[in-house]
Design goal:
By secondary structure, the chain is α+β, with helices and mostly antiparallel strands. It contains 13 helices and 18 strands.
Length: 458
């Protein structure tokens, strides 16, 4: 008899059409949806889940209680989420239910202030930081840190509201822009689903870690940070895979996740060890982990943050396709307390040497915003003719709006909210993959302009 799980869904996470087949293969799934979803994602969930409950209107103060009662009603053996904004709520529900989960350390893996304070207490190197609740706090942080420094939402994700504060910036205006971006995200349901993270906005200012991709790679097109994907079982972390990045848009907006990461084996081993130490210090119990590092000069690395979840966008699919490791299956194993299966090989459509999750954003690879908003329809472009037969591009339907959406010019303060769609790109080797992603970023605006002109020609 299959175990019973409750899958709690909100904004973010890996593709639903990657997650659901893995969950249903091993478990009877009951889905609890706490945010609006596209018709496509709803159809996928309905195909694989025994029951689907939609409750997007529930206030943050009642979310833990709702998850707990729903899990009791269906006799759940495990409760899981892939949304950054539900990590704490699900962890608390698991504690109430006596089920395996991330544990009390989940708060430290969500709130960046709590995270850095724990690392300071346990001797893990971390950037100098300053809590910011008000404009006077921001002025004090500027005096302490010097400029430039970074200002971000302590409960945030996806670089929403994150800004690099430069010497000539007006601090009050920076504060207002950050608050406006976070408030706008909350208005769209992109926010923490617990009262602590959904009340007064909490900001953190921290010293800027300067990246040096040129000390790590032979090309300037690769980004200066990587992430380690891992799992924690009974408090013991294990690193599973390394994911690289294409160069981000200024100041920190991610553009593409790349696997493999083009990092040598010795450095990968070193990063795995650093990630495991950082995760262990947070006191996490049973969960997936996503740990980010800055690649700095002289091949030094700086610890950015840890999340108690599977990496977002298409990272889970990329690692499954390129390395045969199923992060979703490993998470199930940790939560059910069983031996991991076979990494779901039957669910890998076709192995690929290199894969990327490329974000469709209204800017070129250097961060220059598009001249105007443009409609995006994946099907109007002949990707093979454009990029060649050794590159395959398909739309990540689970991470993209229905056809007919628009790509707005890039706005640096909106972070991940700039993303109009996600493309899953595979290629015959990592360099060919990077070249294809770079070409798409630089040439897509003109391709869409041409497509729009063709469609309106009488």
């Amino acid at each position: 008899m299959k175990p019973t799980i409750v899958f709690v869904h909100a904004f973010g996470g890996p593709p639903i059409d990657h997650v659901m087949p893995v969950l249903a293969r091993r478990c009877t799934v009951h889905a609890l949806l706490l945010s609006a979803i596209t018709p496509y994602n709803r159809a996928v969930i309905q195909e694989f889940a025994q029951t689907v409950t939609l409750r997007p209107e529930v206030p943050a103060m009642h979310v833990v209680g709702l998850i707990t009662s729903h899990a009791r009603d269906v006799g759940a053996d495990a409760v899981l989420t892939f949304s950054e904004f539900l990590v704490v709520a699900v962890a608390k529900a698991c504690e109430h239910l006596g089920l395996r989960g991330a544990g009390p350390g989940a708060v430290r893996a969500r709130n960046k202030l709590a995270m850095r304070r724990r690392w300071v207490d346990t001797g893990i190197p971390t950037p100098v930081f300053h809590a910011v609740q008000s404009k006077p706090d921001l002025h004090e942080a500027a005096q302490q840190l010097g400029r430039p420094f970074v200002l971000k939402d302590a409960w945030g994700a996806g670089s929403i509201g994150t800004q690099m504060v430069k010497p000539d910036d007006d601090l009050d205006a920076v504060f207002d822009r950050t608050h406006a971006a976070i408030t706008d995200a909350r208005r769209h349901g992109i926010c923490e689903h617990t009262p602590d993270g959904n009340g007064a906005i909490q900001l953190i200012a921290e010293e800027l870690m300067t990246g040096a991709a040129q000390d790590w790679f032979s090309t300037t097109e690769r980004g200066d940070f990587v992430s380690v994907e891992g799992i924690v079982v009974n408090g013991e972390p294990q690193s599973l895979a390394l994911t690289g990045r294409m160069r981000p848009l200024p100041p920190f907006c991610e553009t593409a996740d790349l696997t493999p990461a083009a990092i040598d084996t010795d450095t990968q081993t070193r990063l795995f060890g650093l990630a495991e130490a950082a995760v262990r210090a947070l006191g996490l119990q049973n969960c997936a982990t996503h740990t980010e590092f800055k690649l700095m000069s002289a091949r030094a690395v700086g610890l950015l943050e840890v999340a108690a979840r599977v990496g977002g966008t298409a990272i889970a699919r990329q690692i499954h396709v390129t390395q045969g490791v199923c992060l979703v299956d490993r998470l199930l194993t940790a939560l059910l307390g069983t031996h991991w299966q076979d990494d779901a090989p039957a669910l890998v459509p076709r192995a690929a040497p290199a894969a990327a999750g490329l974000q469709v954003i209204g800017a070129d690879a250097q961060g220059r915003p598009w001249r105007q908003a443009l409609p995006f329809d994946y099907h109007l472009i002949d990707w093979t003719e454009w990029l060649g037969p050794d590159v395959e591009v398909r739309l990540e339907r689970s991470l993209s709006p229905p056809a007919g959406g628009w790509v707005a010019p890039y706005d640096a303060s909106r972070g991940a909210l700039n993303t109009a769609s996600i493309l899953f790109v595979t290629a015959t080797d990592p360099d060919r993959l990077l070249d294809a992603c770079h070409r798409i970023a630089n040439e897509l605006e003109n391709k869409l302009l041409a497509a729009a002109a063709f469609c309106t020609t009488p």
